[in-house]
Amino acid sequence: MRMRKVMAAALTGLALIGLAGTASASASDSAVADYPWPPKDVTPVHKTKAELQKQADGFSARQQQTYPRVFRGAQNVSPGNWGGEAEGVFDDMQYMGNTVTFTYKGQNVTTYTQVNAPGQHAWSPKEYCEVTTCTGSVSDHRGGLIVFSKYEQFGITSARNFRPNGEVVWVQSWTPGTEAQLAAAASDRALTFTR
């Protein structure tokens, strides 16, 4: 069953290749402007350091499992430590991020993932697109919205998954042409604070 979900996410991501490359999104686009944020009935999550470390270990295992499928043929997948502004987790942390390095199509690639607990990410999709260059948006087929953006100055492409429970998970890369894979990784519901 899990493999089926991973493959569905990967296929959804691959279907997004054309959308991410050609669609445009701005604060005035209807999908971005109309997405309800913050969602109603957001339930805050409060966990201990031990619970968060167990969760972080699970996130890393998930990345090692799914990256070779999402980034088809990726090798040497190496998740970094999870943390906030610095490595490591602490009681009641409301977001965690890590880098993942791997080889993809003959080049070294690094992604950065951030998982935000429900209610942590204050900006709506519309507000987000007012402060950055959004390049597209698409439904994640689970009630969420994936918003693509580019930071030309730094060569960063990002996929940000706004979820109905108030979580936001985003994955970014410095490798062009990875929008579909970033979307599949960001919309992976195994990356969540709610378990």
Number of strands: 7
Strand content: 25-35%
Largest sheet: 7 strands, antiparallel
Estimated structural class: alpha+beta
Strands ordered across the widest β-sheet: 1-2-3-7-6-5-4
Question: What coarse outline follows from CA principal-axis ratios?
Answer: globular
* Number of helical stretches of at least 4 residues: 6
Mean pLDDT rating: 88
For the record, give the distance between the C-alpha atoms at the N and C termini, rounded to a whole number. Answer: 18 Å
Account of the 3D structure:
The chain is α+β, with helices and mostly antiparallel strands. 32% of the residues lie in helices and 27% in strands. It contains six helices and seven strands. A seven-stranded antiparallel sheet has the order 1-2-3-7-6-5-4, sandwiched between helices. Helix 1 runs antiparallel to helix 6. The longest helix has 22 residues, at 49-70. The two termini are 18 Å apart. Mean pLDDT is 88; it is low at 1-23.
Give a concise summary.
The chain contains six helices and seven strands, in the order ααααβββαββββα.
Set out the fold topology:
Elements: H1 2-15, H2 17-22, H3 30-34, H4 49-70, E1 75-79, E2 95-104, E3 107-116, H5 125-131, E4 133-139, E5 145-151, E6 156-162, E7 168-173, H6 179-186
Antiparallel strand pairs: 1-2, 2-3, 3-7, 4-5, 5-6, 6-7
Helix pairs in contact: 1-6, 4-6
